[in-house]
Design goal:
This protein is α+β, with helices and mostly antiparallel strands and 214 residues long. It is built from four helices and nine strands. Belongs to the RNase PH family.
């Protein structure tokens, strides 16, 4: 399958290799949450809700000098259409929950909220590639909406390498093609990388994909 038109250089969805999909964000979408956000990257749609800072529910998990950050990632049963659905709590969901939590901990000023707890819930409503980045972006907006103190805003995007060309912001067809890809999370104002995940990358391809995002 050809992912780039050999004559025009456009991708299957009409984008150039270095074009992102249209993005849209909205905060305050969950009334009973302390902070919430809906984030869209093309046809990928994610909702995030934040509760806290609040009292630690399980005292054995309380941290005296900083806040406890917890994250739960899930995919709605209808999010992937006819594609195989994974049960809640599967290995991939646990991994992505950990990635989101660690990425958010890099920007949350947890030392300002000792002996407290912040819960982040992220759910994919519609999946069309780039779900990990969309979840991070949604979680960041939800934390900001909740007024949680942060040193900077995390932004995230993915890139891949198909048809000997680096492509920015992969959709599902491109993401499932089996090529190498990378997901990056960045603290823009601080000029720091908080997340760097690579998959099936040789060094040259990784360098091309990362430079495309940055």
């Amino acid at each position: 399958m050809e992912y780039l038109d050999s004559l025009t250089g456009f991708r299957l969805d009409g984008r150039r290799p270095n074009d992102m999909r249209q993005i849209r964000g909205e905060i305050g979408v969950v009334a009973k949450a302390d902070g919430s956000a809906l984030f869209e990257m093309g046809n990928t749609k994610v909702i995030a809700a934040v509760y806290g800072p609040r009292e630690v529910q399980n005292k054995s998990q309380q941290i005296n000098n900083q806040a406890l950050v917890r994250c739960e990632y899930s995919m709605a049963n209808f999010s992937t259409g006819d594609r195989a659905r994974r049960p809640k709590g599967d290995r991939r969901s646990t991994e992505i929950s950990l990635v989101i939590r660690q990425t958010m901990e890099a920007c949350i000023l947890t030392h300002l909220m000792p002996r407290s707890q912040i819960d982040i819930f992220v759910q994919v409503l519609q999946a069309d590639g780039g779900t990990r980045s969309a979840c991070i972006n949604a979680a960041t907006l939800a934390l900001a909406d909740a007024g949680v103190p942060m040193c900077d805003i995390v932004t995230s995007c993915s890139a891949g390498y198909l048809s000997s060309t680096p492509l920015l912001d992969l959709n599902y067809i491109e993401d499932s093609a089996g090529g190498p890809d990378v997901t990056v999370g960045i603290l823009a104002k601080m000029d720091k990388v908080t997340l760097l995940q690579v998959s099936k990358l040789i060094f040259l391809n990784a360098k091309c994909c990362i430079s495309l995002i940055l």
